């Protein structure tokens, strides 16, 4: 597989250079960071659960999308090596992933294939600037208050998984129960308490999977909902940045950039976000969930602890986000903002 990719590389990639020394440097920094991450996972792939492997699968998809757009042979060669590592992790761990309970079989079979996550199209910042936020939520005055409101979202991951199984296994019309529809596909009049943090990112993920399933939903309405959700998520991300990025929210921050970055919103690809991600990487290449006092935060249910106290969910998300940054900077003019 790898030798075929090398041949493919020399067919599609011209022998040009990066547009500037700084642009070469940024791409190099990202590829080195992602390479360290994937090396860590290769050595510990058996600790990666389904959610973690989903991040690796998306990483591979984004990297494969990049190749036709790279005009620097050195960077392209590095990307090929990253693809090979991600592909190796995927095929090594796939047979080890559980298929029971039934939801794991569904997720493994229908969500993990990399082809589901290809062809990201970057947009021109088509986000709403007037997203309605509950006044009580928008007027928080400290990092602790912000963190409390973001985490107080009423998100039920078990129920979300059940709804996702409904969606994936439904007929072409993708009819789901009223309870799931109400919980994941009806937007509030105002975002805020009970509609924040992981609740909103999972509402977005639900719509993305409905799109992948080619559900017979109103396409225009679906895209409008995605736009509203990412507009609100960007508000949260900016607020987090104002507080110098709250360590307890690292996993959520990665998830926000990953999901809305996949939608192509270029505002999620800012240097300050990339710098924070690179600063958060453990010296071993993975990502941990740590508080200011070095206490491990409460893990998401669908995650596992790896060597050095690293977290499979955060590590998989970080891989996907770094690959998205690499793609965004390779196929758009965003490099000039760095």
From TrEMBL:
Coiled coil: none annotated. It comes from Aquatica leii. Keywords: Signal. The keyword Metal-binding does not apply. The keyword Signal applies. Transmembrane segments: none annotated. GO terms for cellular component: cytosol; membrane. It holds the Pfam family DUF4735. This is Uncharacterized protein. Residues 1-23 form the signal peptide.
